[in-house]
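User: Could you write out the 3D structure of this protein bound to iron/sulfur cluster? I've included everything you need below.
Assistant: Certainly. Input first, then the structure.
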Amino acid sequence: MEFINAVNIIQSGGGEGWFGTTHNMNIYRGCNQGCIYCDSRSSCYQIKDFDTVKAKKDAATKIESELKSKRKTGVISMGGMSDPYNFLERELEYTRKSLESINKYKFGVSCITKNVLLERDIDLYKKINTHSPVTIGVTITTADDRLQSRIERNISSTSKRFELIKKCAEEGLFAGILMMPILPFINDTISNIEQIVSQANEAGAKFIYPSFGVTLRDNQRLYFFEKIGEKLTNQYIEAFQDSYVCVSPNQKQLKKRFRELCKKYGILYKMNDIVEASKTYIKTSQITLDL
Ligand code: SF4
């Protein structure tokens, strides 16, 4: 197990970010979950030896004291740069301990993960949700477990992730999907989008936040090309040259079908609506408790 020093672990987001978050928190550095498209491995983030997960030394204690010293509460984002439920977390429980502090100091939380280990901490998310917004965002890029195991290699299967969403929804948490990236020529099919939205509905997902493309830069691009092989690499180069944003050529049709289905099932997909709904979820909990 490798530890690194970090002066501060919680950073102010400088306003309201995705899912209404006001602060960012990354307890771990690097990630071994092997997503071939991972943006966090880009050289601009300067993470050496990205595939080895490092834990920030004394993270739980530091987070407790950082939260305690804040004058205003807010919503903490977890999982922006590294999955908070990686394999080290099972033993270290830094994410769990941080949730205890988040609850103690009355902050809200938005957690993004691909790992079903999150289920262990549902009790804490429920406690936080009695006073603050909680958003559970599970990333799902393909409904096909076989394809998923090739593009996200060391992590819970898509089927297991849908089960996690179902469990969170049954426990009354505001849970949904980050449907990104949708990779051109790989998972950008109507059938994939239809299956994801339909299974999301069955699992009780409240939202799906999509992106019908992928961003690629420097060494992240090289890594991605190495993994997808020569034929697909040539397709990417022909379609996008060295553009940072690579939007699916099927975007228009995918988006249309996606929106139709989300409307049919009452699933939110616009960020403003998702943030507003996450706030309403607290009131619902309070009303339930008052009764
Ligand atoms: S889980 Fe997230 S941080 Fe880890 S490799 Fe995949 S995209 Fe990157």
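The chain has one domain: 2-290.
User: Perfect, thank you.
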